[in-house]
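pinging the channel bc i need a second pair of eyes. not urgent but kinda urgent?? the chain im working w is below, pasted from the shared doc
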Amino acid sequence: MIGKQIKGRSFSKLLNYLFGKDGAILIGSNMEGLTPRELAAEFRFSQQLNPRVNRAVYHASLSLPHTEHLENEVWHEIAKKYL
């Protein structure tokens, strides 16, 4: 498994990028929103709780070699443990 972590400033840019990928689906969340716009609004609301943070976007990605595949339920469990 390959992990990558990135900090950023724009929730909208990250979410539009992620949802714009071919085959992208949301397999787990503790948020109410389902679209990039709804999710970005929720994240911005949370960001207002501590305005001193200038890079509030944290994107952690996990991937497998192209020859391997996991079912969504397994990815969801891995993601919960990772976080």
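so The helical segments are 11-19, 36-47, 72-82. and The chain has three helices and two strands. — does that match what u expected or am i reading it wrong
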